[in-house]
Amino acid sequence: MQSLSVAQISDVLEALSPERRETLEVRLERWWPDVHAGLSAVYRPDQVPELESRLLRVVARAFAERGPELARLDQARTLDPGWFQSEQMIGYACYADRFAGTLQGVREHIDYLRELGVTYLHLMPVLQPREGDNDGGYAVADYRQVRADLGSVDDLRSLATDLRENGISLVADLVLNHVAREHAWAAAARAGDQRYRDYFYVHPDRTVPDAFEATLPEVFPDFAPGSFTWDDDLAGWVWTTFNSWQWDVNWSNPDVFVEYADIVLFLASLGVEVVRLDAIAFVWKELGTNCQNRPQVHAITQALRALVRVAAPAVIFKAEAIVAPQDLVHYLGQGAHHGKVSDLAYHNSLMVQVWSMLAAQDVRLAVRALQAMPPVPASTAWITYLRCHDDIGWAIDDADAAAVGLDGFAHRAFLSDWYTGGYPTSPATGLVFQANPATGDRRVSGTAAALVGLDRAVAEGDPGATQKAIDRLLLAHAIVMGFGGIPVLWMGDELGLPNDDAWASEPGHADDNRWVHRPRMPWDVAETRHTPGVVPERVFAGVRHLVDVRRATAHLDASVPARVLGASDPGVLAVLRRHPLGPFLALYNITDEWRAWPGHRLVELGLGTAHDLLSGLDLDAGADGNVWLAPLASHWLVRG
Ligand code: GLC
Predict the structure, then answer these.
(1) 372 — phi, psi (to 5°)?
(2) Structurally, what CATH architecture does the domain formed by 561-639 represent?
(3) Ligand 1 center from residue 433 Cα (angstroms)
(4) Boundaries of CATH 3.90.400.10 in the chain?
(5) Bridge partner residues of 68 (DSSP)
(6) Which atom of ligand 1 is found nearest the CA of 388?
(7) In the beta sheet, which residues pair with residue 246?
(8) Do residues 59 and 311 make contact, with C-beta atoms less than 8 angstroms apart?
(9) Per-residue model confidence as pLDDT tens digits over 136-152
């Protein structure tokens, strides 16, 4: 093993049973080369040996302390490494407090999650944040404490165990680009401790910040302009990509790497099964670049992941990189990092294209953009989603737009107008988030229901418009669920919850309208999900149907790639999956009119008799040789 001597951890090894000892040794042999290569790509040759020694001890200790239940899960997952790719996977994401008050409250609602078929639960940040505004918990003050109002570390561990017993994997955030200004490292830095000052990027004057800012985009231009904040205690400018009280940590310092290795293993020890690498794109800074998606990000992820594989192979990584399509695929591993970085990544591009298709009533841009994405490793999976807790930024490539005769800038402006009520014929009622006059960018907040026009239709008491909006919403969910990967529902979308009109009234929220789509779960409304004919029931039943069909369709395993086909009709999206069981073709009419799909293409794809899993009926070509698709219809076709 390169530069690794297990003799240094003989004390840990001796305390293990012969079987466990062998397991550790075998895993070290398997994974340490990935650790070594990742670290060597980032740190100086003179730093690496010492860093490896420290990490070896950290990881061996975590291995030794892994409890029997989790150690068994490690074995099971090692035998079934594709567990998270299964068509059985259904995700749900929520804030614990807004869903159910506390961690104990979440336990009491496991039945609801099971009813929805959920197997993956992302609880938004649960670790101790700073007081006051904390970006929904993304400003962590203590990684080893749970937010006091939610419960304790023991509650989190018990919740993870309960969820696991119910077939649900707990997903938690690892905020690794920044800490709160109140975190102990930041406090020590402010108190003048040089060791901790080196955990951050601190500059005495504007020279370096100005040089970086020449090429840095702004994340929150409205409420947190610039990427550096003056701090009196530090007597310096500290790097703050996000809010002024979120201090970027300096990953070029090996001590920082060791800290986070320890933290991720701590999360694993609590029973977290999926670690969401928050804002991972930003962790490496390089002058003259936009300081996102640098190759070092992937080397760091590779080393961290390999370490976790040694101590806790049941745990997988999910990259939160909401970036341009050509950068996105790297988070699942391209080139030397193939299969070695995150197991999951958000399919931001699919999400954007779903909204773009629905607004433009045209699939050609989506076809072009999705076809242009390089294939991802067969061992990984996309997180597919329609909405999440964040805003929607129009990650549309200018070249893709140009290729289908659109101007990228104008199309992005159209989408912002469409979804925020600035377009005369649009029924959407979203809000503009972070308008940036310098770039013309306007991102969008709002629940899925608000964006498809359901809020407006219900408010106006228009049954026809309500039905159409529900159809549009279910079509969008069908595209997300039928793509392959783990579809993740954002809390409330399963009920068609409207925008939260009172979003600005809570302390610290008024500046950040993403709270408009982060309502508190109205359990009285959820109770009506079985009352025939009401909107929550119609949406819930539709989503449940998609979940049920998906779970019975092995073709949707993520290891089989989804291929977006060329459009026969600009109103019909076709997605093909060539599974060993036979072809699976999804057809979606994204328009409000009847549209045709050529019957001969079905025959060519091996679907001469096409059975629609969603309706339970066969889909036949008519006398004109076409299959006719109803407005906003979804069909999941397999061989009849
Ligand atoms: C991620 C989160 C977002 C947060 C940001 C900073 O993008 O999804 O909510 O504002 O990271 O932590």
Answers:
(1) -75, -15
(2) Sandwich (2.60)
(3) 14
(4) 184-248
(5) none
(6) 8
(7) 180
(8) yes
(9) 999 999 999 999 999 99
Give the span between the Cα atoms of 390 and 409, in whole angstroms.
22
Q: Which pair of tokens denotes residue 346?
A: 């958000």
For residue range 564-607, what is the model confidence (pLDDT) as tens digits? 999 999 999 999 999 999 999 999 999 999 999 999 999 999 99
The pair of three-digit structure tokens given for residue 119, joined into one six-digit string: 């197997």
Q: Where are the beta strands (DSSP E) in 409-500?
A: 431-436, 441-445, 486-490
Secondary structure (3-state) at 193: coil
CA atoms of 577 and 598, how far apart (whole Å): 18
Residue 223 near residue 243 (C-beta atoms within 8 A): yes
Cβ proximity of 619 and 610 under 8 Å: yes
Q: What is the largest CA-CA distance in the chain?
A: 81
Domain with CATH 2.60.40.1180 in the chain: 561-639
Active-site residues, by number, are 278, 320
Which string of DSSP letters, residue by residue, matches 81-111?
TTGGGSTT--EEEE-HHHHHSSHHHHHHTHH
Instruction: Pick from 240, 242, 322, 513 the residue to mutate for probing ligand 1's pocket: most ligand atoms within 8 Å of its CB.
Output: 242
The atom number, within ligand 1, closest to the CA of 514 reads 9
Residue at token pair 């991802």: 376
> Phi/psi at 55 (nearest 5 deg)?
-70, -35
- Do strands 274-278 and 169-175 pair parallel, antiparallel, or not at all (unpaired)? parallel
CATH code for the structural domain at 184-248: 3.90.400.10
3 confidence band (pLDDT: 50, 70, 90): low
DSSP-derived pairing of the beta strands 127-129 and 140-146: antiparallel
Residue entry with tokens 């640098």: 294
Atom of ligand 1 nearest to the CA of 322: 7
- Please give the Cα distance from 199 to 195 (Å, whole number): 7
